Amino acid sequence: MADWMKKNPGKWSGFLSKTEFPVLPDYGKVVYGGCRGFAKGIMSWPQDLIIGGAQEGNNQIKSAEALQSVFLVASPNDLFLRFKDGVRKHLKPSLNAALWNMTTAEEVIRTWQRNFTHNLYNHEWNFERDAEGNVASEHRRVHPLASTSIADMLEEFCQFNYTIIFVGYLLMLAYALQAQMRHHGCMLTADSCVGLAFAGVLTVTFASIAGLGLATWFGIEFNAATTQIVPFLTLGIGVDNMFLLLHNYHGVVESVKEDEVGNLMKETGMSVLMTSINNILSFLAGTLLPIPALRGFCAQSSILLTFNLVAILTIYPAIISLDLRRRKSTRRDVCCCVVADESLISDDGYTLGIGVKPHLQEKRTVGDSVPSYHNLYSRNEKEDDVEDDVKPWTLHAFLRHYYIPFLKRGTTKVFILLVCVCFLVAGLLGMHRASYGLELSDVLPEHTAPAAFLKARDRYFSFYPMFAVLKGPNIDYAKDQHKIDNYRRSIGRSRFVVKVDGGEPSEKYWLSLMRTWLRSLQTELDRAIAAGQINVTSGLVMGEKADFVGLSNKLSAAVNIAYRLTCSFGHKYDCSGRIGKVRLVDESGTINVDGFYNYVTAWYNSDSMMYHVSQASFFPPPPHWSYEDSSAPLFVPPAVPFAYSQIPFYLTGLTDTPIIVEMIKEIRAVCDKFANEGLPNFPSGIAFTFWEQYLHLSSNLLQAICVIAFAVFFVISLIICNPWAAGVIMIILVLMTIELAGFLGLAGIKLNPVSAVTIITAVGIGVEFTAHVVLAFLTSLGTRERRMVAAVDRVFVPVIHGAFSTLLGIIMLAFSEFEFVVKYFFVVMSALIAIGVVNGLALLPVLLSLIGPPCEVNPVDGTDRLAPPPALRRKDNKRHIQEMQTHRRNDSDDSNTGTLGPENCSTMLLIEPPRDSSSGSGPRLVANTHARSASAHITV
What we know:
The chain is mostly helical and 940 residues long. It is 49% helix and 8% strand. It is built from 28 helices and 23 strands. A hairpin with a 2-residue loop joins strand 15 and strand 16. The longest helix has 37 residues, at 292-328. The chain crosses the membrane at residues 160-181, 193-217, 229-249, 270-291, 303-322, 414-431, 701-721, 728-749, 755-783, 795-815, 821-844.
């Protein structure tokens, strides 16, 4: 009929008058203030829940941009109980009761939800078609979301993207190979380290894989942070140590003739150990944040970095020792079967390289009895400030010819200090402007159905469902009825709770619905008593035997239930003196205390629709009972006090994180008040799960930063035995942390647990940019100015390589499907690298030249050079000095500590004669910032 009327509107007048013509309703008036269904007492939906972007006027909605519908889905437990024991087999005749269990019920609900979202996502309204009916473009207008949507999507995107990982590792490998390549023509030279670079990247890769395996064995689950971030972050940080080892490897091989790998580890091992330990500690500090996913991320990162450290200190030196054999046999890199031409082998006959550095745990003074030589090489007076030639158009050439001269200027130091002060002020300003928050849509991949739904909902709707959970089983629900009512009313008074007429919360709850049901039963029972159907004195049903069981045909269904409930209390059944005297609900609204749990069983089984509407989710559920069972006894069994039950609410006006946090504080205060009064409870819902962490984020962040800062200071002070130097490092780390936090505020990146992790780890990662400079500063002789120059000259290249390799390691994060990975890890970590380079290679050298710690070696004559060696003899226009004297070692070795002491060493000292005979006396021996100290007797 309806279809015929649609096709023939002109024929309506044949059987309808104009006043009877169908008229479209005025939806603006109908939905204004909300909608009500046919069961107006139950089916009520506030306007904020269903209409978004509304324009109102004259008590009606003139226009709206979004319409939302919410479907309540039964819990697996409710669905399982609904069809358990074949009670409702007529509803599902094909259901196999023998196979029906809780797991099957869960699968049924998940399947329904997946089909629901799939059908709506592919709805025809989401596609625009051309004239031929083919899909021309996609225009999303219907956005579905179910509880399975986010879980399924995260499960899909939490898998490792091996293509992205492969590309990222390939880029890192290409950079490492290029940085260590030395070639002559199209052939690699013998001193090239391409093979070592390749082996180093593989070592870090396999160590990371082993670390992930151990993390999995520990039960740390993979999540989006693990699969999207950890492989690249640990790779970028792990290869820093490789670059540092290879940078010093060239110098050690040229300087030391025996035990080269041992000396390399003495040179670099302590620096690698110190920076790696601080990185590990920084991620361990991140586990202090009470966010399970971020705790897992930080724990996995610390495990992987630990494996990287062990591999780089054990496996990689073994690989270097193999390469050293190739290098000594002058075989070309990679192509080990090819021997390099003798003409291409550099002549070290006029180069002094003493690459052995002793270790002293305390400051020593060099005396005349044991002459020692620190950083020695040959040059004339005109070359005091120039070291060995460097290749043009290289990073080292830029350092020597431009950066160091620029850094030595007084005006440059003032400029750097002023710029860094401006950075500090900007950081403090940014911290003041920083806001809390992380949108739900940000943590989901772009162009997915859940992300589209959440973005649309965040734009048009500001409501969230919540539950007030009563935490039993120690609650006496029968005696605490009014306390529970007051608890609900107190939460309902919040301005964030959606209310209906009369100020009541919009959602009904189980105690109120059960009370209404019992009152209706009491009314029917009173009518039956008044009609003489029940004897008040004896409590017997008129016309029934005293021992009748089951359903009485003399009474209606409602009276049957009311009659049984009145006689059932606790574990007893007795009608004597109760019919007509005991009320199910008294005038004050109190449900009869003695029979309360019996009434719960009856309501749960007889009025199941209202139970599902109430969303009470009783656990454990009441026992099964049915008044329709003719063979069942009249007694209604009592329910067990609930360990869990909940009261539903809808919250509105939650537009941003500060407002949501305010709501959480308000609701939490009410919950804590009643918990202190003996009603255990807590709030639950998306808003609380996702945003409650912000209540304690500042304190947790401050605690974690203090812990990692103290740990870094303690570790550095313990390793180098110099609190002064550790204090200088901490100054830079604090500045870096403030500047990074300020960058978040200035860049509009909100502070949340994800960004808090990057701030915490910044303290540890920042050591990469500072520790090497300070250690080099401590191992140099001379004034603060000369030692600053020597330190920068020594570590500038490996620090830049490390920074670029870290950036290259995380660059693949920019292609992640997750917006939060790009924003909170790639952008923030890139900013951290830039801040670290500026502070570590610009501000730190300036501070060291002004307030740096004293050097650990003081020549007795007060100069900045050690005493010259004994007189040398000329032989065939070349000077050969060979030292084979061995001294007993008194102290253990500390890499990167430039203190002097007796040392077992065997070195070759070759001095270049003066270039110009008119330049004065013979060759001079002065401090060389690239060599290392040695204690030796020089013999000719």
